Amino acid sequence: xxxxxxxxxxxxxxxxxxxxxxxxxxxxxxxxxxxxxxxxxxxxxxxxxxxxxxxxxxxxxxxxxxxxxxxxxxxxxxxxxxxxxxxxxxxxxxxxxxxxxxxxxxxxxxxxxxxxxxxxxxxxxxxxxxxxxxxxxxxxxxxxxxxxxxxxxxxxxxxxxxxxxxxxxxxxxxxxxxxxxxxxxxxxxxxxxxxxxxxxxxxxxxxxxxxxxxxxxxxxxxxxxxxxxxxxxxxxxxxxxxxxxxxxxxxxxxxxxxxxxxxxxxxxxxxxxxxxxxxxxxxxxxxxxxxxxxxxxxxxxxxxxxxxxxxxxxxxxxxxxxxxxxxxxxxxxxxxxxxxxxxxxxxxxxxxxxxxxxxxxxxxxxxxxxxxxxxxxxxxxxxxxxxxxxxxxxxxxxxxxxxxxxxxxxxxxxxxxxxxxxxxxxxxxxxxxxxxxxxxxxxxxxxxxxxxxxxxxxxxxxxxxxxxxxxxxxxxxxxxxxxxxxxxxxxxxxxxxxxxxxxxxxxxxx
Length: 510
Prior knowledge:
The chain has 510 residues and is of the alpha/beta class. The chain has 19 helices and 20 strands.
């Protein structure tokens, strides 16, 4: 008997039938149905605004559906609130960590349980061992990196041992080793009969862990089936809008950077700061320089120091021959460098301001939109330009930035950094939390910057992204550059090995 025939003879652990949901006149879900059997891992993919988050919030009891039914083990369940979902055996690990910052890691994980402290700590130790998670449980949550916060959220879900586990972008900020550890946990949970909905924008993950895959677009499931019936190209075609083929056909071939004819726009020499030391590299006009490495290697600390956010402990940074070492961020911006931060929620958004205000906030007190009174017409022209180029899904430029999905918020943050027409753009995880179609839009913008002669310094934990975009790449390992690779030498294997201190080619900062 095949796996599919076995499923047909088993009751569904979770059955979502014809779910509808509208906000005002906007129909977000238009009759969505999914079934999960014991041990299923349904990978759900779709663009920002497709309705994935709304569907998950309905399953978790955060929103009430306008129509449809949710069943657990064949019985209809009224998900009136999150407590009802937890009682029914459903738990969601959110994409953005939701920890109490002044509580310890242990307190964040174990709060809400009624078992003995000894039993809880024993279970927690077991799950930490499975994940290879070696973190001081007495640390305050506000001292954790994004990757560490994400692992704490995953542990919260594991501790509840739910029948249905929803993982919303769980690997978006994890290292390669942490991702592989998570996949082992997913396989273990699957073998125990736990059903999972796994939301991701990384298509390679689909074929590593999924039993089934579904594509969601504009509030409906457009494709669904066993993962063996799909390949990566089919999924990409299913995600892209109807004009995607035209865009793809217009994509230009790789154009090499004429290094022998150019002077560096940025020169970094023996730069040291908190978390890195003796870093040296040149960045050229029209070059995309990728910086690869695992979380904690010192990459983000490096670019934050260049941008004036952290203290320089040694070395120099020059822009067009001018020494800008240690200048405050406001001066760095005026000199011609702008920055897209990794964490848009803490460092990238004015949450109670409009989309238009967020897009043009870097232009305040400039002739571009006015020094005394803001030129609203020009502000909207600039904002609309980036909305169109990024295909940002909005209703109005005057809507609050918080009304957008995470990926669309990230597009606005990137647009703001490009609005100043900088000489150098620093991108820290530029496509974190962005879907496949939107990722292509961002890639096109980055290529346009290259074509216009703008230098791009890009930190990315996504090795495929570095391979796709970079003219040249360096790897950072334990706070130092341990490898430099030309365009033809950049491969996933080479960058992954160097990022973990293996198969070094050459150390350029010695």
